[in-house]
Amino acid sequence: MPHWLQAWLATYQDPMFWRFPMTGLAVSTGAFLAFALPLTALAAWDPVVLRRYKVQTAPFEVRTWLWPSLRQLGLNVVTVALLLTLSWPVLRLSGIHDGPWPAWWMVLAQLAFCVLLDDFLYYWMHRGLHRQRWLLKHVHSQHHRIRQCCAINGNYMHPLEYAATGALALVGPLLLGMSLPVLWVWLVLRQFEAADGHSGYVFPWNPGHLIPLYEGAGYHDFHHAKYQGNYAGFLPYLDRFFGSYAKGYLQWRAERHKPA
Predict the structure, then answer these.
(1) Cα separation of 254 and 250, whole Å?
(2) One Pfam annotation, family name (predicted)?
């Protein structure tokens, strides 16, 4: 066996291969399902008492898109697992480490940095997916087959888009040289946004509102309904700066916040 091949294979004997990319992928996938499946069950039930919290009045398309979404998620996870495996010889050189938790204020600062950076990067990638015709037709249009979203649809997307979204989510942790526990918290938070942003419900008791400026499912639901605008993930400030709100979103938000 060539020496270079032996050296390459030896990198996979590092315990961090399983603790960093593989466990991170498992945490990310498990978190998404933990958030998405109860919200999807709620959408399938669609209780009358909660309909005033729905973004759209049309029925959810749970029966149509549940199994396609689960199958696509499985394909996407396998694709990313292969990409992480191939990129491990480079990833292992990063500053991600298996050290202890930093101070609580450092955890909050690192998570805030990741939210802001990921949102900035995702805004431009997402906007680019809509502006570049080939990518829109052959990649991003798959996610837009669904107009009346429920939470399980959050990761129904082309494997290329899924991999790119995951890569953007890793940029912040790689720059910071995060410890693994904080990385896992960040991945859980990111998948909460993916599920909640597609849930179709805007609940006033949603814990996501603890994040300043977070607007929940209404913000992203308008993106699916109108096909253009509202390109960010967590926070809508970039759409304000660049004039890219979805048509009708600001009026809907203003009406929703009127006193009863």
Answers:
(1) 6
(2) FA_hydroxylase
